[in-house]
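Usage example:
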Amino acid sequence: MTTTPEVKISRNLLHTWIPSVVAVLAVIGALILKSHIPGGELRAVATIFMFIALSQAWNIIGGFAGYASFGQVVFFGMGGYFTAVVMLKYHFSFWVAMPLSGLFAAVFAMLIGLPLLKLKGHYFAIATLGVAEGMREVVINLPDLTGGGAGISVPIAGTFAKTQYLGDGGFYLLFLGLAIFSVGIGTLVSRNKFGYGLRAIHQNEDAAAAVGINTVRSKVMAYGLSAFMTGMVGASYVFQQVTIFPERLFDVEITVLMIMMVVIGGSGTVIGPLLGALGLQFISEYLREHFTSGHTFILGLIIILAVILIPQGLVNYIREGRRTKQYSLLTNIRRYRL
Amino acid sequence: MDTFLQVTAYGLLQGGLLALVAVGFSLVWGIMNIVNLSHGAFVILGAYIAWEMQSWFGLDPFLGMFVSAAVLFCIGYVIQRYLINLIVNGPVFITLLLTFGINMIFIQSMNLIFTADFRSIQTSYGSNSLKIGAIHIPVVRLLAFLLAILISFALVAFVKRTRTGLSIMATGMDRGAARLMGIRARHVYAITFAISAALAGMAGTMIATIETFDPAKAGKFTLMAFVVAVLGGLGNLYGALVGGLLIGLVESWAGQYLSGTWVNGIAFLVLIIVLIFRPNGLVGKAFYAARVEL
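Running the assembly step on the lines above writes:
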């Protein structure tokens, strides 16, 4: 009995120290990497960072709270369009527009969250999908404000541009910053009371309410936080792309990618979505370069295999494996099959 | 007034087609709690098979659709039995991802085999139309509509009157209990999915006779099936019919009376309003909607 506290302390040290050290090393590595790779690759790596931020954002509402937001791209699109409009029409600096876009998306999320978060399971998924599709229509149909289907361009040079274009290196740093920010938020949420409340809601919402969690407020806040991060990423994406179109900015595929990364990595964890985004985006980029005609095919095959072999996600699989000393994939399949 | 009647008739016909696309999707979702994101790809594959049947053997699409249905029945059975069944007990998003992966493979394969060109099935009677009063009704659309209604009723009869159908219902209500009663759940799931795929193939053939199709359209049909199934509600096989007709009407009216591009958004607006006031869909049963997976 006397040794237990010591073991606990050393374990806790292990749990707090190692991830932070690895995180700092990873950031330093990313900064060193920046000066060693050419422009095109910088863009590709920046995209990886972008998806890390997006998957972390989705993880808060989808992974922790268990509400499968299938229309998450709406916050990406709205944040993006907010930035484009205020930079073009009101000559805002990008650095002001970006956080405001996040806030705009968050407020919107909280407003629609109040009615929508009463729905459960697939119904919530389809309702949010409906919001995203509807919003795209709204954007297309307000050509005076948003440029409609013809798209809109952000001023990046000249007298109208408050913020000059950042260039490949600049966007690399911007998306790296967003990724760090989102992983930080994810870590915070996962370790404090708010995050535990969300996990309780995920497991059993009635029971969570019974032990005194204000489920409505928690869910709406989680949705808002998730939208805030997604909106800021959308804003940065728009500035990077310069000219944007509603079809691209409200593309369902972006939502699907976020979900895939979270689920394959391990939903409800911080490291899972990070690894998922890193791995999937890397593989996808590699396949695009080396198998131009068949890359969707191979990506689909990889998704199917990953999903069948480790349905609970990579991180959760390793955690369970460490606890039970059982790593056999066959046993793993047996647990989830009919 | 004539315009209104014409638009309404057109909406109903379109609604029947949407119902046919959605009925299999709704069946799989209601019974197995699987949202099949590859449903649209099955629809398009059905269209391609019927197209090939016509170009190789001169087979009329209204016969060719049975070939489509048969081929997709087999494909559907194998996919459910040897892929989806493996993860049925996993977290719900896993099934979404798996079917999304299947969808990617199907679409890419169709792109490679059939190319991404637009195609449509031409028939000698394709441009004929009936005239009732001042309303024109295209014959092909009318046939497709009647077929959709017929299939909905046939499906209900099959599920309620046959042994296989009853075992499908029983498995949908309580899988554990059904297995204890000697129902082979793996087989029943595979059959259910196969029926759904076969119906998607038939729907695809109908669509091919009416409009052009290409692999990129698959996502649109999945989305439509999703909306129609939720709108009608799960657990009631007439749900897809009700949802399909409503969406068809609303879109048709919106297309006539609102300016151009608002049409697609309207369907989702209706959906969200219905979900807020009737969370189980228009005619769905609470049991199936409340079955929230963890």
